[in-house]
Design goal:
Layout (H helix, E strand, L loop, with lengths): L8 H28 L12 H16 L7 E5 L1 H4 L4 H5 L4 E5 L5 H5 L2 H6 L4 E5 L2 H7 L18 H18 L4 E5 L10 H13 L1 H4 L2 E3 L25 H16 L2
Parallel strand pairs: 1-2, 1-3, 3-4, 4-5
Helix pairs in contact: 8-9
């Protein structure tokens, strides 16, 4: 209104619609951020001091570049994150990287909202080695790294892996969930725990209807440890290691 003059009815209608659209968009963004992504206050007690900061940085990056509906999502820790562009690796456009270096099973559980919201075509989960590093910390404490609390047991880790798979299945039933077995490690003292976790998740495959990909067997040497030619430090993969990973799953990914 200007000098007592009223706007035409259709103009007022357009203005109201614009306000409604803008308002709804703003509300969606605000509530979406709160619902889909953990806040800075959400920190699992099993994250170490370094991981807390990196976890928050990665969550912020996920917020700025959210998933699309129907994506294929690789979820995990540094082994997944350092794979970088999984779309390029598989020569497909819709594969997204949701790896966070240092993350543990409880950390993945805390950030599942984004994943289930976007109803991915498939989720490929590889998680647990940092939990085991935390579990074994008393045997080999790492200098300058502060752990909040020790992981209870390998059984606890296996239960969390299964819980992640079940949560995704229940929330988005059309999503195919692939649980990848934990890779071998160069440290002999971790072998027994890795084998136990992998055994538990395998034994529950038919009960909970996720699909196991036994990635471990492609990387294990005759002593049950990580093949030296596939790793740069006994835990993380080199380019040859990632090539083995892609080759092991190429037919599965292409068949989705």
């Amino acid at each position: 209104m200007k000098n007592g003059q009223q706007y035409p009815r259709h103009t007022l209608l357009i203005i109201c619609l614009l306000f409604l659209i803008i308002g709804c968009g703003s509300f969606k963004k605000q509530t979406g951020d709160l619902v889909l992504y953990p806040t800075e206050k959400v920190v699992t007690k099993y994250h170490n001091e370094w991981t807390v900061g990196h976890y928050q940085k990665r969550i912020k990056a996920f917020q700025e570049n959210p998933l699309n509906f129907g994506d294929i999502v690789f979820v995990g820790n540094s082994i997944t994150e350092q794979g970088k562009d999984w779309s390029e690796k598989f020569n497909l456009l819709n594969i997204r990287n949701r790896g966070i270096s240092g993350d543990v099973t409880d950390g993945v559980l805390a950030r599942l909202e984004e994943i289930v919201h976007y109803t991915p075509k498939a989720v490929f989960l590889l998680i647990g080695i940092n939990d085991l590093s935390n579990y074994h910390q008393e045997n080999e404490p790492r200098p300058n790294v502060v752990y909040h609390s020790k992981i209870p047991s390998p059984e606890y880790i296996a239960k969390n892996i299964i819980k992640i798979a079940i949560t995704i299945q229940k929330r988005t039933p059309k999503t195919q969930v692939f649980v990848q077995t934990i890779l071998p490690n160069a440290k002999p003292e971790m072998k027994e725990s890795i084998d136990l976790i992998n055994q538990i998740v395998k034994e529950n495959e038919s009960k909970y209807e996720y699909r196991i990909i036994d990635l471990n067997r492609y990387f294990i040497d005759q002593e049950g440890l990580m093949k030296k030619n596939l790793t740069n430090d006994g835990t993380h993969l080199n380019e040859q290691g990632y090539a083995v990973w892609v080759e092991a799953e190429k037919s599965i990914v292409n068949g989705l």
